Amino acid sequence: MLSRDRAKAGFDDIVVTREPLLRQACYIVLILLTCLRPAPAQPDTEARAILKELVEINTTNPNGSNTLAARAIERRFLDAGFDPKDIYVGGPSERKYNLVARLRGAEVRKPILLMGHLDVVEALPSDWTTDPFQLVEKDGYFYGRGTQDMKSDDAIMIETLIRLKRESYRLGRDIILALTSDEESGPFNGMDWLLKNHRDLIDAEYALNADAGGIVTVDGKPHHLSLNGAEKIYADFQLTSRNPGGHSSLPSPDNAIYHLSDALGRIARNPFPVEFNPITRGYFERTAQLETPQRAADLKGALRTPPDPEAIRRLSADPGFNATMRTTCVATRISGGHANNALPQTAQAVVNCRILPGHSPAEVEQDLKNIVNDAAVAIQFLNGGTGEPEHAPVTKGQAPEAVKDEFMTPLTTLAARFWPNAPIVPAQSSGASDDKYTRAAGIPTYGFSSMAVDRDDVRAHGKDERVRVSAFNDGVDFFYLFLKALTPPPVAARVTIRPRIQAQQATRPFVRLPH
């Protein structure tokens, strides 16, 4: 019956698998009991040490080394008592190793896969107010490259598996952690490589991707929880205009830079059409309940048939809502000319597109050609690994995922205790992650991070990247309890609870873990 209740709250278009009510009740009781159990002393201390170690290993492309980070994590797992046979470190490049660790359970059901990546984008120390490759704590924040994307989540997942191993917790199934390379950039994407070469290491019933979704806060206060069930496709296109050139004293309107400039202007002035899928429709419906009256009216207006054009215009001014409603294409790089006193022979630009599910790069390439409509400007898809032009893929983005009750029940129950009154909102990622590989491989993937980030303080890939220390601590506590709730002990190992005692347990106040 959960799916019917959830439909009233904006999840009507998300498919939710049904499970027996007894199993759902067992999940809830186990969650409540888990929350009341004492935790190991100062769990955050080790989590912080792991975060510090990860941040201070440069894993940028092409100058850093993911292998150093993978080996450091391997040492921690071995020190915690993991069997070396349950840890794999390897990859197609000596600097781009991936780590896969398996925490053994009852093996009654297929494992759960936890996903993350070790690589980060480049950070210039001269741009930052702190050293980007040192974990700095100040003013209630952790600063450092990767604190938001996504070494904090990596540290939390690593710490959780180590704690469960030391506790000898009886898992109902195996948990696999895959921390990979080249998610941000580079030719050796780790998740894609593992699926093609070592599928047996990461095969799972479903995956939890900590590189998507999460807790959205406003001034540090919970606003909503984003659960990603879909994401856009990443695609780069190169626009090239060529010309014989000549002497700059004899200018002509037939100028490579002018042709390119006009083409980019047409792309900027002709946004892609508005389109909703079950996830984004649910997101707008649920978010409308949390916004100001005008914004709520606009969100509802956008969902009408046909959409209210004024509501679309106002929402399009917000980058987040705009990216949710449509495929976006934006110029990100430009070059041209060869001398100050010569007419340009070549002008080039890169246009980065984030494509809605259900559409392919090949479709968008044709759309761009129709928008530009200039034979003097060639448009080609760029291979993400090599950066060289090639034929655009015809593969379309994956449809929204079904959400299992066994995932939603503990998430809903625990989230209500950590972040009261913050609803869970279905969402579609405007960025790109390794979801596209696992979903295409038939592994249902849900995007959720236990880290809270202010919606006006998203610094991933930017200057002075940071997370609140309190958000990190909460993430450590939440994920530990959440993972235990996802993998309850086998039925034979569970303690039978009499109804009267069960009722007493359920009415106890929630106890937060100590920091």
Structure description:
This protein is an alpha/beta fold and 515 residues long. Helices cover 37% and strands 21% of the residues. It has helices at residues 2-11, 21-36, 43-55, 66-79, 151-167, 190-197, 199-202, 256-269, 278-287, 293-302, 309-316, 319-325, 361-372, 405-418, 435-440, 469-486, 499-506; strands spanning 16-17, 87-90, 98-103, 112-117, 136-138, 141-143, 175-180, 206-209, 214-218, 221-231, 233-242, 246-247, 328-336, 342-343, 346-355, 377-382, 389-390, 403-404, 424-429, 445-447, 452-454, 466-468. The chain has a 6-stranded mixed beta sheet, with helices on both faces. The protein has a 5-stranded antiparallel beta sheet with strand order 13-15-11-16-17. Strand 5 (136-138) and strand 6 (141-143) form a beta hairpin. The relative contact order is 0.18. Mean pLDDT is 87; it is low at 1-19, 36-41 and 493-515.
Write the layout of secondary structure elements.
Blueprint: H1 2-11, E1 16-17, H2 21-36, H3 43-55, H4 66-79, E2 87-90, E3 98-103, E4 112-117, E5 136-138, E6 141-143, H5 151-167, E7 175-180, H6 190-197, H7 199-202, E8 206-209, E9 214-218, E10 221-231, E11 233-242, E12 246-247, H8 256-269, H9 278-287, H10 293-302, H11 309-316, H12 319-325, E13 328-336, E14 342-343, E15 346-355, H13 361-372, E16 377-382, E17 389-390, E18 403-404, H14 405-418, E19 424-429, H15 435-440, E20 445-447, E21 452-454, E22 466-468, H16 469-486, H17 499-506
Parallel strand pairs: 1-18, 4-7, 4-8, 8-20, 9-21, 10-19
Antiparallel strand pairs: 2-3, 3-7, 5-6, 6-22, 9-10, 11-15, 11-16, 12-14, 13-15, 16-17
Helix pairs in contact: 2-14, 2-16, 3-5, 5-16, 10-11, 14-16
